[in-house]
């Protein structure tokens, strides 16, 4: 009789354990299957993010003001396939407001990082620190999210070409990662800033698992080669 009771208890415990494991596996699987369909527009203040959002949404060249909250919408890209509805979010660039993008990285499909090419030299450090933070984000790196670096304001004579911006960013990331690597242990597990690229090798964007593209644009100009169509093509490719 006692034997039987023991057996029943063992079977009950085993069943509960199996159910628990099954529940965890199902939760994990459905969590990973969360639909990733969001395109986020990031970059420091005044780079042209809201201008880009408005161009994507209705192809309008409008005067914009410093954003204090995000612009978010689901829409087909202006003058593109109506069937393809994009979820796009433009975040404020102010350093105290920009952190909100982190809530969306688990469902991010693509990142458009906008740079003011005319003031890049002056803002190089801030731009690189923000880009570094995005590249090192757990979800952006694990999901190998594609990144488009839009070198905006090319209408200014002093605007740097995309090749120069790319090289400058690589050099600055190289400097930053050595200082960051030293402080990694202090950070909380979920937000660990991974070392970017290969150790013992100068940083190159090609060393990352993400596909990283650079384009030049002038989002305030309505002319045909403003770069907006390349940005839309990239979004459609990554849809
Ligand atoms: N000359 C020139 N001006 C531009 C271009 N793109 C945007 N601007 C202007 O730059 C300013 C900032 O543009 P926004 O789109 O508001 O910049 P933002 O990145 O959204 O800025 P925050 O919301 O403050 O982070 C505005 O006055 C735009 O009209 C461009 O390609 N050329
Ligand atoms: Mg804005």
From TrEMBL:
It is found in: Endoplasmic reticulum membrane. Keywords: Endoplasmic reticulum, GTP-binding, Hydrolase, Membrane, Nucleotide-binding, Receptor, Transmembrane, Transmembrane helix. It is a single-pass membrane protein. One of its GO terms (biological process) is Golgi to plasma membrane protein transport. One of its GO terms (molecular function) is GTPase activity. The chain crosses the membrane at residues 6-27. SUPFAM superfamilies: P-loop containing nucleoside triphosphate hydrolases (SSF52540). Its main location: endoplasmic reticulum. It holds the Pfam family SRPRB. GO terms for cellular component: endoplasmic reticulum membrane; Golgi apparatus. It comes from the Eukaryota. InterPro entries: P-loop_NTPase, Small_GTPase_ARF, SRP_receptor_beta_su. Belongs to the SRP receptor beta subunit family. PANTHER family: ADP-RIBOSYLATION FACTOR-RELATED PROTEIN 1 (PTHR45909:SF1). This is Signal recognition particle receptor subunit beta. It comes from Piromyces finnis.
